[in-house]
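Bug report (template v2)

What were you trying to do?
Predict the complex of my protein with guanosine-5'-monophosphate.

What happened?
Run completed; filing so the output is reviewed.

Input:
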Amino acid sequence: MSEPSVFTRILTGEIPSEIIAETENVFAIRDIAPQAPVHLLVIPKTERYRNVVELAAGDPDLLTELVGLANAVAAEHADGDFRLVFNTGAGAGQTVFHVHAHVLAGNLAEGSLG
Ligand code: 5GP
């Protein structure tokens, strides 16, 4: 068994980070190094899926639940408009291999991909 991911350690309270919202199977936190005025992470409570491709193939309902929580936190913490980013693979900048979505919001209209 490999070590729990940083997000599992946050979920269990081993690493301090406020859980700002959750559903039965998904939770949301603030990113520790924000790249936008609002930068939240939405994360399945299970770490069995390493990226969004595995999640979509393995549990589409869980992916739907994740997108729903992303929409809810974007409405609560910004004006409801948001960018949803899944870095997939180290070459794309993924550093934590426990699938998570970046919810980026606030003054993002300039530029197409940020
Ligand atoms: P990735 O690069 O894998 O797409 O995203 C991982 C994200 O997790 C990064 O944006 C990074 O800032 C964030 N992160 C890493 N460690 C922690 C932590 O201990 N607490 C919080 N809140 N975010 C973290």
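What did the reviewer find?
The chain has one domain: 6-105. The pocket of guanosine-5'-monophosphate is lined by residues 6, 15, 17, 29-33, 41, 87, 93-96 (CB under 6 Å).
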